[in-house]
User: Which sequence fits this backbone?
């Protein structure tokens, strides 16, 4: 080897060392950004910051599975307690960088807790968690974290369940009254089991319940902090929040991520979070003035009927169920008739043919606008899990 | 899965005269439900039909 070649190799090595040093600095920057919550896509929960609330800001809960803040629903499992959910609340933790919370308040205290249970839940679509490799040898650990404040001190429970409750992971934590508390729970990898029911496409893969409000004996277990076979949500230690008149609870900053540590909450842009929510549900918005157009390109196909093609703002999870609220009208330039029925035929995940039935008097062939004149007049498209 | 309170269900036809959706009253709300097994409302309608708890009326 010539001396000239030795010097050339040395120079090359020096260059490589510089590159490694630069890479290390870059990795430090990435790690720093990650720790600050700056890496997007890590939170498997949609609307964990409680900032999206398309259905309104005050929702009465008297039956099972009522959606409130987008993507979140209440479970009553058949019980007789009722409560009100108030979204976009500004009672938030004094530390951290969250902006909204959701408030749950008991209206009528349950008298049947134990026979029936109560919980808050988000259902996660299979496509979004297929990388967790649930049940397989290379399944991943996950960590759930959130902020919560309850007027009732005591032991609370949370749970994560797989499709149809085939496997469950139940955990407990303690809250002091009226004190914002950050709960962090690392959940072991669900490995080495056969999940014959697991949906890893557009169905429910995971049920995530960060907090429960009353235990149901048939869904309670004494086994916590490990995955168990069967459908369990509670332990018998769960405080009877739902049986406490006037009880309140606030929750926000809900995050489920891969790994064994809770990292700072991931802040997404409002538009990004809204679009994620609209894959499951969206409703038309009122512009704040009369004659807000909900559907355009509609043509009268008879004296009481009109139809149009409608495209959804994002690709939905499944073809949606379509509904409407209030006295929306069909206006053909002359007649302005109240809509009495809406159907969506030929629906897909991206668009539908909307058929509108309205009072008689429309002129066949005329263009028709479907109008809203108040904030409670809108169309809904529901593809929730 | 939760059980919905479905008080009525009726098929709706598309332009070709085929059943294309179901208009139903679900938990007190009128909804038009696509014939998509992935839709939770359709899945629950069919579950109740198979359980003998609900009958879907033919389209007009």
Assistant:
């Amino acid at each position: 080897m010539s001396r000239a070649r030795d010097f050339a190799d040395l120079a090359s090595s020096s260059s490589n060392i510089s590159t490694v040093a630069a890479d290390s600095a870059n990795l430090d920057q990435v790690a720093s950004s990650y720790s600050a919550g700056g890496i997007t896509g890590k939170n498997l929960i949609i609307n964990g910051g409680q900032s999206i609330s398309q259905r309104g800001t005050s929702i009465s809960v008297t039956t099972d599975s009522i959606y409130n803040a987008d993507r979140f629903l209440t479970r009553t499992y058949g019980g007789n307690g009722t409560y009100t959910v108030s979204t976009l609340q500004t009672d938030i933790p004094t530390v951290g960088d969250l902006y909204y919370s959701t408030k749950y308040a008991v209206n009528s205290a349950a008298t049947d807790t134990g026979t029936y249970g109560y919980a808050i839940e988000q259902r996660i679509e299979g496509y979004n968690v297929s990388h967790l490799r649930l049940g397989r040898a290379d399944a991943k650990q996950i960590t759930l974290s959130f902020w919560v404040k309850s007027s009732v001190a005591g032991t609370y429970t949370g749970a994560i369940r797989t499709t149809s409750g085939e496997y469950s992971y139940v955990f407990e934590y303690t809250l002091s009254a009226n004190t914002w508390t950050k709960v962090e729970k690392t959940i072991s990898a669900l490995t080495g089991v056969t999940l014959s029911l697991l949906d890893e496409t557009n169905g429910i893969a995971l049920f995530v319940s960060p907090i429960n409000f009353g235990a149901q004996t048939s869904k309670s277990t004494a086994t916590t902090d490990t995955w168990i076979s069967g459908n369990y949500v509670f332990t018998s230690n769960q405080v009877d929040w739902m049986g406490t008149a006037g009880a309140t609870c606030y929750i926000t900053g809900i995050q489920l991520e891969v790994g064994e540590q809770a990292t700072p909450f991931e802040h997404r842009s409002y538009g990004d979070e809204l679009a994620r929510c609209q894959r499951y549900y969206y409703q038309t918005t009122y512009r704040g003035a009369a004659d807000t157009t909900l559907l355009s390109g509609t043509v009268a196909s008879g004296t009481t009927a009109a139809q149009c093609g409608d495209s959804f703002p994002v690709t939905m999870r499944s073809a949606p169920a379509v509904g409407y609220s209030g006295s929306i009208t069909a206006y053909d330039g002359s007649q302005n008739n109240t809509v009495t029925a809406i159907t969506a035929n030929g629906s897909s995940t991206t668009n539908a043919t909307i058929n509108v039935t309205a009072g008689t008097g429309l002129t066949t062939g005329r263009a028709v606008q479907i109008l809203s004149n108040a904030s409670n007049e809108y169309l809904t498209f529901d593809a929730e899990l | 899965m939760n059980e919905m309170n479905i008080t009525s269900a009726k098929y709706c036809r598309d332009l070709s005269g085929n059943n294309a959706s179901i208009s139903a009253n679900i938990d007190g709300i009128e909804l038009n439900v696509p014939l998509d097994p992935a839709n939770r409302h359709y899945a629950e309608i069919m579950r109740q039909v198979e359980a003998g708890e609900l009958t879907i009326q033919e389209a007009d």
